Amino acid sequence: MEPNILSIIIGAAALIVGLVLGKFIFAKNTKKQVEEAAQQAQKIISDATSQAETLKKEKQLEAKERFVQLKAEHEKDVLLRNQKVIEAEGRIKQKEQSINQKDQNLEKQIKENEAIKETLNRQIEVVNTKRTELEKHQEEHIRRLEKVAGLSAEDAKAQLIESLKQEAQTKAIALQQTIIEEAKEKANKEARKIVIQTIQRTAAEVAIENSITVFNLESDEIKGSIIGREGRNIRAIEAATGVDLIVDDTPEAIVLSSFDPLRREIARLSLQRLVADGRIHPARIEEVVEKTKKQLEDQVMEIGERTAMEMGVHGLHKELIRMVGRMRFRSSYGQNLLMHSRETANLCGIMAAELGLNPKLAKRAGLLHDIGKVPDEETELSHALLGAKLAEKYGENPAVVNAIGAHHDEMEMQYVISPIIQACDAISGARPGARREIMQQYIQRIKDLENLAQAYNGVEKAYAIQAGRELRVIVEADKVTDAESEKLSFEIAEKIQTEMTFPGQIKVTVIREKRSVNVAR
Questions:
Q1: I need a surface site. Which of 63, 160, 318, 504 has the fewest CB within 10 A?
Q2: 3-state SS string over 425-481?
Q3: Exposed/middle/buried for 131, CB within 10 Å: 0-12, 13-18, 19+?
Q4: 215 pairs with which residues across the strands?
Q5: Does residue 411 contact residue 385 with C-beta atoms inside 8 Å?
Q6: Are residues 491 and 256 in contact, defined by beta-carbon separation less than 8 angstroms?
Q7: What is 105-131 written as a DSSP string?
């Protein structure tokens, strides 16, 4: 590298000299100037040569220093590698020593095992010999016992086994009976405990449904408007609602009598609207009753939705919600059906939680277990089977369907919650004062009376009023004539006498009314 630099410097100096000489030669062609230029060029060349030598020496020193440094680093690296190789060789030697030691121990252990094996073989031979001798002695002993007892070994074994078997069976039967009795006693105690805890944790109201509703008036003057000319208004109300209105000397009150709470509620709300409006006549009465029925349907849905929300039962079909709302206006043995269903649902949820089951599913089944008592149409199915059919129709869980259908043992119980629903239904109905059998029998008799009349052709509506002492039958005017009305009244009365049992007497009134309506525009 240094000769190249030196050549470059010398070449540059020569170039400069040439340029200077050329300048002087071109400017003045004098000898003196040429000589001065030659001296100056010689001086420049001399200085350049001196600088080049100095630079060459410096570069040689730097190269020597760099070589010494690289050599020291290389020696250090080689030393480190040698140390690592020595350490690795040491570890390998230690492993070889350890392996050799293990081989020696293994060979020693193999020799010891072979010696133990030989000892065991000798002991096994001794044991086999003794076993053979023992078998011979045992056979000889058995032959002697058979000779003394007069029985073969197989017969004696069979007798012994039979004796032990009978003794074991006797003890097993006694032990089994004891276990069963203890289990029954324990189960009864646990069942009582769960039922008592469930009842104690549920606060229930006991209320008996009545068959009358008292409608309060601001003054007795309104009674005349409600009765109407020759009683036409009160007859129109009774015909439209199926409720018997009792107007007596009771101050500022009219009694609404009917076995059906829904009819009484419709009559009460209709009277309230009519009294507030002041226009009371047959056409207006029918209009208000129809509006009230529609309003009550909305109220039924609202009651059903509120009940489902309060009970924590979600995802019910709209028809099931409507049936839950309708239970508010139904009674079972005098017990309000919605209150009974809510109480049963709460009991089911608590009992299921006590037993480690799903409380939400049990509460759902408890709330819906009596929906078969509020059908849209009368059927011959029992309310339990009808309720199961409705629940299945509207997509309820199979466990809920089975619990509804089986709570009166009319369907086989297939799920664990089914007996819980049955038990909680019985608990709710068995509370002191919760139900009244006479009331239910009376309601059933009233229903049978109305159904009997509605079975005839041409009958539009039939209402049992005055506590079942009068049956009012409304017929369609275009299907039944006046003469046929008298015949129909007689036939219904005859059928009631032959097919039904009732106290006192029942008056059958057939009402036929022809209306002609036109609109002037």
A1: 504
A2: HHHHHCCCCCCCHHHHHHHHHHHHHHHHHHCCCCEEEEEEECCCCEEEEEECCCCCC
A3: exposed
A4: 254
A5: yes
A6: no
A7: HHHHHHHHHHHHHHHHHHHHHHHHHHH
The closest alpha carbon to 243, from 261, 225, 264, belongs to 264
Asked if 486 and 516 touch (Cβ cutoff 8 Å), the reply is: no
pLDDT at 203: 45
Give residue 484's identity as a one-letter amino acid code: E
Residue 433's pLDDT is: 46
State both tokens at 121: 């073989």
The number of residues making up the chain comes to 521
184 versus 329: the higher-pLDDT residue is 329
Greater confidence, 24 or 73?
73
Q: Are 10 and 45 in contact (CB under 8 A)?
A: yes
Look up residue 347 and give its two tokens.
């009991």
Supply the pTM of this predicted model.
0.46
- Residue 208 DSSP code: B
Sheet bearing 459-465, strands edge to edge: 459-465, 470-475, 507-512
pLDDT at 207: 42
Query: Distance between CA 30 and CA 311 in Å, rounded?
Result: 132
Whether residue 209 is predicted with pLDDT greater than 50 in this model: the reply is: no
Residues 325 and 302: beta-carbon distance below 8 Å: yes
Please report which helix (H) or strand (E) contains residue 510, including its range: strand 507-512
Q: DSSP string of 346-398?
A: HHHHHHHHHTTS-HHHHHHHHHHTTGGGS-SS--SS-HHHHHHHHHHHTT--H
CA–CA distance, 407 with 200 (Å, rounded to integer): 22
